[in-house]
């Protein structure tokens, strides 16, 4: 069964965030409990100060109830983001590899668990800089003559969020390019 036209454009940022909440993160529980069986799996035991690995949605729920502290991923630090931005600048046209749900997870953690992060203000600034830098590279890549002459666009190392933002434009542009390339004798 085909999707309705309004659903064919792609996923929304909220839908991508919902999908990202299945990714596992470490927490430090502030309560004690043996294993808990949920529909999505078995989690625990929860014994402070030992870390437990749970899906992001569960970590966010526990955090909102002040039942845990979320351990940020290693890539969500000022040092790591600074290094990624430096590498992104040095690699003129290519994109640095990022974790699959990079933007979604970082936004949720900054919104819900900013007190568990070191220097959340600087993290927000670095994430904004990185996002703008990558969007600029995408715009430059789309404007270059090489892209307009070929039937494909190199999107290696783009995150699902970046692809989601790019998809409506690309599908329209590629359709127009195919229409221009058709042989008039057909």
UniProtKB/TrEMBL annotation:
Pfam families, alphabetized: PSF2_N (PF25005), Sld5 (PF05916)
Source organism (scientific name): Cutaneotrichosporon oleaginosum
Domain of life: Eukaryota
Keyword terms: Chromosome partition, DNA replication, Nucleus
GO cellular component, one term: GINS complex
GO biological process, one term: double-strand break repair via break-induced replication
CDD domains in alphabetical order: GINS_A_psf2 (cd11712), GINS_B_Psf2 (cd21694)
Subcellular location: Nucleus
Protein's recorded name: DNA replication complex GINS protein PSF2
Domain called DNA replication complex GINS protein PSF2 N-terminal: residue spans: 12-71
The protein's assembly and partners: Component of the GINS complex.
Family as reported in the entry's similarity comment: Belongs to the GINS2/PSF2 family.
Occurrences of domain GINS subunit (ranges): 75-178
């Amino acid at each position: 069964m085909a999707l309705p036209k309004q659903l064919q454009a792609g996923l929304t940022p909220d839908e991508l965030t919902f999908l990202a909440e299945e990714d596992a993160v470490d927490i430090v529980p502030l309560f004690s409990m043996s294993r808990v069986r949920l529909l999505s799996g078995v989690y625990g035991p929860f014994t402070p100060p030992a870390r437990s690995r749970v899906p992001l949605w569960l970590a966010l729920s526990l955090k909102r109830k002040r039942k845990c502290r979320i351990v940020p991923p290693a890539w969500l630090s000022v040092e790591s983001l600074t290094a990624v931005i430096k590498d992104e600048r040095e690699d003129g046209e290519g994109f640095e590899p990022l974790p699959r749900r990079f933007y979604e997870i970082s936004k949720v953690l900054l919104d819900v668990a900013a007190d568990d992060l070191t220097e959340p203000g600087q993290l927000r600034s670095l994430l904004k800089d990185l996002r703008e830098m990558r969007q600029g590279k995408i715009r430059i890549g789309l404007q270059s003559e090489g892209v307009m002459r070929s039937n494909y666009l190199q999107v290696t190392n783009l995150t699902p969020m970046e692809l989601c933002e790019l998809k409506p434009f690309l599908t329209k542009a590629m359709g127009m390019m195919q229409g221009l390339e058709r042989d008039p004798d057909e």
